[in-house]
Amino acid sequence: MSPAAPSPATAAVVTTTALGNRRTPLLTLVPRDGALAWVRRGEGLVGWGEADRLEVSGPDALATAAAWWADRCARTEVHDPVGVPGSGPVVFASIAFDPAASTSVFVVPEVVVGRRDGATWVTVTGDAGAEERAVVETSPAVTTTSIGQLRYADGSLDPATWCGAVEAAVARIDAGALDKVVLARDLLVSADEPIDPRRLLLRLAERFPDCWTFAVDDLLGATPELLLRRTGDQLSARVLAGTTPRGAGAEDERLATALQGSAKDLAEHGYAVRSLVDALRPYCDEMDVPAGPSLLTLPNVRHLATDVRGHQHGDADLLELIAAVHPTAAVCGTPRDRAATLIGELEGMDRGRYAGPVGWLDSRGDGEFGLALRCAQLTGAEGGRQARLFAGCGIVSGSDAAAELAETQAKFAAVQTALED
Ligand SMILES: C=C(O[C@H]1C=CC=C(C(=O)O)[C@@H]1O)C(=O)O
């Protein structure tokens, strides 16, 4: 564990509705550097500045982070007349796909602007002057500069080698070694000009209103998958697995109908739902799991989707629940351990925080975490002109490597279109 700096003995956190009447879109408020965001349909949280930061890895990473956040909250003087999920002290988090091996990042912003059910609030952590700065800083930023031409290069594996990995995975599945594994690949992008995260976030939010547009520590994306939301003792999740690209004209409907009737995709989806439900069940006294999936339609792909709800008993905090459910078979596989080992063997890359939980947590224990999918890691290389994109696919018996490669391309398109616009 490597906390960047020791927490101050006490911190003051003030939430105010002073900007309550302003309807400025949240994502236009964030600065170019250090943007923090979790926004869907214009509501959610944005933040900037760093009042505190924790970078952590190792087998107890999430327990360490939970203790750090609880300790920080206990030593914080809070004035929060708003009193809704996301008001008062908030930490944004981007957790590694493998928290034991890679670094997870937790950032407490100096300023958070939140919007929920049409009401807007501002929360300031730290010195009194920050509140005034927040008001000044909540003027919309200019975000329209073009980044020029984009050039793409293979990431860790070229497409043919990745298809070979998919075939190897199918062979292992057919030999009975496991039921499902999610294999991902990365794509490198270089632009003529530095990539402005604000521009990317705005484009993603415009094009993907059903997704959660997120940014934490230069990992930016619009995820359709909600790993876990906790509001008091109510838990909810949106599990996705099983995908088809969009088609032109009548072909689009044909693809949608085929997805809903595909035994392969329904099996792939079933593993993902079961992995979440089985992991969450010990923490719930009631669960509502629909008998079959619905269809989620996005501009680039359609997914099989299941919205799961649970009523929590006991006092496990949200990070403990996240540690229990992650990684689900939407991003890892079944059985989990064998799938994780095969990912390490076949993928040839470090996922970092791709496919890890990303979101926020408040001092009441409420929060929302998605899976960091359809995302780009801004690398800072070449003066901020480079990004690394990620996309993965669930592989089961019957998966076809060429179709899976096409699926990764359709998934990359979420960020590519936002960069190219
Ligand atoms: C792993 C990814 O997607 C997951 C979520 C939805 C559908 C998926 C699929 O059909 O394979 C994946 O399980 C990704 O977008 O990188």
TrEMBL record:
NCBIfam families: isochor_syn. Pfam families: Chorismate_bind. Keywords: Isomerase. Residues 160-411 form the Chorismate-utilising enzyme C-terminal domain. Belongs to the isochorismate synthase family. GO terms for biological process: salicylic acid biosynthetic process. This is isochorismate synthase.
